[in-house]
Amino acid sequence: MEVKNKYVSIKANINGAPEESDFEIKVENLSLTVEPESKVVVVKNLFVSIDPYQINRMKSQSSSQTSISYATAITPGEVIDTYGVGRVLVSHRPDFKKGDLVAGLLTWGEYTVVKEGSLLNKLDPSLAFPLSYHVGVFGFSGLAAYGGFFEVCKPKPGEKVFVSAASGSIGHLVGQYAKSLGCYVVGSDGSQEKVNFLKETLGFDDAFNYKQETDLKSALKRCFPQGIDVYFDNVGGKMLEAAVANMNSFSRVTICGVISEYTNASTRAASDVKDIVYKRIRIQGFLAADFMPVYADFLSKTVEYLQDGKLKTMEDISQGVDSIPSAFIGLFNGDNIGKKIVKVADE
Ligand SMILES: NC(=O)c1ccc[n+]([C@@H]2O[C@H](COP(=O)([O-])OP(=O)(O)OC[C@H]3O[C@@H](n4cnc5c(N)ncnc54)[C@H](OP(=O)(O)O)[C@@H]3O)[C@@H](O)[C@H]2O)c1
């Protein structure tokens, strides 16, 4: 038996800001016949993740492409892999049965042929949360927020924490983890609606719209008159420079990502390194996959916080494979609040 598989690909490498014309929606015939001895699992995709790092995979060249297997270059015309949630359609493996709900490396398309060795886990049906949570708050966004904040920043109650892209998928979780620890938390983002969301819905102590500030160093000085102890950086560029100028002695900066630099390398941060030396600032990058050893702790604490109402997770869900290019482009225009997800099919 065959099905039509609709999927998204890039027409050519993208080296600047992505545009609709860079993408095409393709349709292929996909066989659902799997030999009995094959370890391949065919999955019907339900929810797929939309993430900024994919832009670095779409470039003709980026140092990130040789760092880790899931960041490898995307070939124009081919299917694009991504984290997602789906339902098993065909499997002869004893560990996956038809109808099982799974999370793993799927595709920006309607179906995924998951090869042996590729990331695929059965979902725990006892977790009574929406399926989409397994793409966001229980997926790599949540793990990056938890691990990057607790494991890398080593925060203490009462410390002053700054988060950029604070209304985004990772940022909105980091700020709430920090509040739950008893930190003073300020977020930056790109609109008044988002500023209100951080303060009124998520309980951030303060927030500002970076697009309306003429001097980011002064904006941070205003929000942190006694300096910043922890900066969770999602954007890099000028914001990183301004944060370093406002960091306290023995403070920590964790670099989760540098989205402001992805589509324009000329905006690279040039922080004052003297500040890093004399204030003994520790700056560390990470990849979410580094925190797989603490996944069980992360999941149990996050489930507990969600159940207690200490943590709210926001999702921004678009419908259908055709919406994937605009959903992705929207990340670079600040269109999303919370985790950007595309719902590909009904559960
Ligand atoms: N290290 C890891 O393992 C890991 C894992 C996942 C993601 N990341 C990184 O973490 C960061 C956040 O990812 P996410 O998935 O949570 O995305 P996200 O924050 O949900 O979405 C991106 C947001 O970034 C902001 N933005 C876009 N262009 C910007 C610019 N030029 N300057 C400042 N802000 C800009 C926009 O919000 P505004 O309205 O605020 O502009 C946009 O909504 C990204 O840098 C991503 O690459 C790292």
UniProtKB/TrEMBL annotation:
<dbReference type="Pfam" id="PF00107">
    <property type="entry name" value="ADH_zinc_N"/>
</dbReference>
<dbReference type="Pfam" id="PF16884">
    <property type="entry name" value="ADH_N_2"/>
</dbReference>
<dbReference type="InterPro" id="IPR045010">
    <property type="entry name" value="MDR_fam"/>
</dbReference>
<dbReference type="GO" id="GO:0016628">
    <property type="term" value="F:oxidoreductase activity, acting on the CH-CH group of donors, NAD or NADP as acceptor"/>
</dbReference>
<protein>
    <recommendedName>
        <fullName>Enoyl reductase (ER) domain-containing protein</fullName>
    </recommendedName>
</protein>
<dbReference type="InterPro" id="IPR020843">
    <property type="entry name" value="ER"/>
</dbReference>
<feature type="domain" description="Enoyl reductase (ER)">
    <location>
        <begin position="16"/>
        <end position="342"/>
    </location>
</feature>
<dbReference type="InterPro" id="IPR011032">
    <property type="entry name" value="GroES-like_sf"/>
</dbReference>
<keyword id="KW-0560">Oxidoreductase</keyword>
<dbReference type="InterPro" id="IPR036291">
    <property type="entry name" value="NAD(P)-bd_dom_sf"/>
</dbReference>
<dbReference type="InterPro" id="IPR013149">
    <property type="entry name" value="ADH-like_C"/>
</dbReference>
<dbReference type="InterPro" id="IPR041694">
    <property type="entry name" value="ADH_N_2"/>
</dbReference>
